[in-house]
Amino acid sequence: MEKCAVTGGAGFIGSHLVERLLRMGCEVTVVDNLFMGSMENIAHHMKNKKFRFERVSILGGKFCGIFNGTDRGPSLTNSLASL
Ligand SMILES: NC(=O)c1ccc[n+]([C@@H]2O[C@H](COP(=O)([O-])OP(=O)(O)OC[C@H]3O[C@@H](n4cnc5c(N)ncnc54)[C@H](O)[C@@H]3O)[C@@H](O)[C@H]2O)c1
């Protein structure tokens, strides 16, 4: 099973990509600081065990550590975080 990270996954394009990846059976971690995106775009995934949301900026030091100590390190990263 592919492990994917989508930065900006709460945004317009990112949330559609997340939808598709989950439907394909991937594990998906969304990294988004919600600066522009919305929880409304991803809230329906919160009970899905294959979905994880990290409210973190990709610009800060926290971003580097979010996969430490987990088995969710992505093999595929899609970067759609933008202003
Ligand atoms: N929407 C379009 O029609 C379109 C067309 C061509 C290209 N693009 C490009 O695709 C990308 C995504 O577009 P979109 O329409 O989904 O934008 P969007 O604003 O809906 O999504 C961007 C997401 O990035 C998040 N974000 C911003 N800064 C962040 C940070 N520092 N850390 C973590 N998350 C952060 C925002 O909160 C938001 O959820 C952009 O680069 C845009 O220029 C969009």
Q: What composes the largest sheet?
A: 4 strands, parallel
Which ligands occur here?
A: nicotinamide-adenine-dinucleotide
Shape, per Cα inertia axes: globular
Task: State which percent range the strand residues make up.
Answer: 15-25%
Distance between the termini: 31 Å
Percent of residues in helices: 10-25%
Q: Indicate the mean pLDDT.
A: 95
Report on the structure:
With 83 residues, this protein is α/β, with parallel strands linked by helices. The chain is 19% helix and 22% strand. It is built from two helices and four strands, in the order E-H-E-E-H-E. It has a four-stranded parallel beta sheet, with helices on one face. Strand 1, helix 1 (12-23) and strand 2 (27-31) form a beta-alpha-beta unit. Nicotinamide-adenine-dinucleotide binds next to helix 1.
Summarize the structure.
This protein is α/β, with parallel strands linked by helices and 83 residues long. It is 19% helix and 22% strand. The site of nicotinamide-adenine-dinucleotide has 21 residues, from helix 1.
Task: Detail the topology: elements first, then pairings.
Layout: E1 3-7, H1 12-23, E2 27-31, E3 51-54, H2 62-65, E4 76-79
Parallel strand pairs: 1-2, 1-4, 2-3
The protein binds nicotinamide-adenine-dinucleotide (NAD).
Keywords:
2 helices; 4 strands; 4-stranded parallel sheet
